[in-house]
From TrEMBL:
Annotated InterPro entries: BACK (IPR011705), BTB/POZ_dom (IPR000210), SKP1/BTB/POZ_sf (IPR011333)
Domain BTB, chain residue ranges per copy: 32-99
Name by which UniProt lists this protein: BTB domain-containing protein
Residue ranges, annotated region (Disordered): 278-313
BP term (GO), one: neurogenesis
A GO term from the CC aspect: cytosol
Cross-referenced SUPFAM superfamilies: POZ domain
One Pfam family linked to the record: BTB
Amino acid sequence: MARPMTMELADWQAQLSALECNHYMFEHQIHCDVHFRVGAAAQLIGAHRYVLESRSDVFTVMFHGPLAEKDVVDVSEVEPEDFKEFFRFLYTDDGPIDADNVLVLLYLAKKYNVETVVKRCVTFLADNLCPETACFLVEQGHIFNEEDLKLQALKFINEHARTVLNGPHVHDLCKECLVAVLRSDKLYASEKDIYECALRWASAECARRGRSDSGWDRRVVLGSAFCHIRFPLLPARYFLDNVMRYEILTLKEKLELTRFFLDSDKYPLQTFSARRRAYKEPPPIPKRQPANRQDRGQGGASEAREAEAQFLSGSVSEVRQRLTARQRSAIPRRMSFAARLYLFESL
């Protein structure tokens, strides 16, 4: 840990180490041979070329290249205190990193190619992964081209998908990062959660673009991300009630899904995937049969409703598998005509 340099020392060259002497000269602006005009207030901050060049090849090119900077360099995009903190890392290879300065330090470290500071910032961010920060860190990894940080955040989202996808922060992802989340086979969330998360993101994106929030507008803003929703994995009843009747699928997509549901061997999917993710739906809880049936008509209606619910449980692919030649003759006797008509017309 570098020694604080806030006090004046009568004989600092004799009392301090070489590293501490450099730090002292920076803090007290002694013999600075280059200056930076920083922030909106254009505050001048002095430094020493040899120190900067020893830590960054960007500064070497800046001072000695064909387009070498003059004695004053403009850095308007950051505040003076943040810039000083970055320079303290260059002079001492040490300093505090916290939630308030980590992104500014990462930005400056990437700009001036100081890999030691980059690694410290990425480590700090990765150590603070949680459901509230995971999407933010995916986005920052994408912006700063830090693939390791992005992959760590995506891994966290996979493992905590049910919490993250139902939270508010996923709406702040860019489309590229949303695609990275939705295409994963390791998402531990139901396809229903994933589909509704995509719709909420699309609704927020429509608001950002000033578009209406219709089903088709959501479909448009989702773009390529829409194809990573695995519609065959949705529960059958949910698919029929909330997807087929919602203006988000094209006629071609409806036809593709319908053909697949009826005969997946003959009509394989071209647009959507039916590959299962890490999450598995819990088995349905069996319903207890009534002990006595006072009225045969009421008992028959109850039996039909139970048969209908059991038949439509699970994903659409599982429902399709039940529609075998051997079963179809039994289905009409247990399900109402309206239920059968609703099912087959929807498919």
